[in-house]
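Write out the 3D structure for:
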Amino acid sequence: TCDAVHPTPLFEGLDMALKLREQHPEVALARFAPLIEAAVSNLDSRGQADDGNAGLVMSRAAKVLARSGDSSLTSAALQLLQRGRRLIQRSHDDAEADLSHELLEADILERSLTDSSTAQASSAPGASASAAM
């Protein structure tokens, strides 16, 4: 249908946002969060969120959220990344494409997000008191 969203332009738009941010650090990537949520929801509702292309979109969306600098988006980024990585892995395993570089990038980003999430939890007010109990 004419109002459907296809993964390829979503991926390209997210990639463009990352490149724009590299050139102009003042670009507020956090503003993409509601658009990313709507895009993934649209892919889900149209049955287009279960293949490698959608996985690449989710992985790239996670990268946008992670690079936004907004720690409140870390959990959403991690969820998108994990979901996307599974889809990318499946496409890679099925020999649809060599996506080893995307898998490596996803693993590095996941480690970074996990470390960031752990650091945030341990520095939260009351975290040391809770840990001591």
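The radius of gyration is 16 Å.
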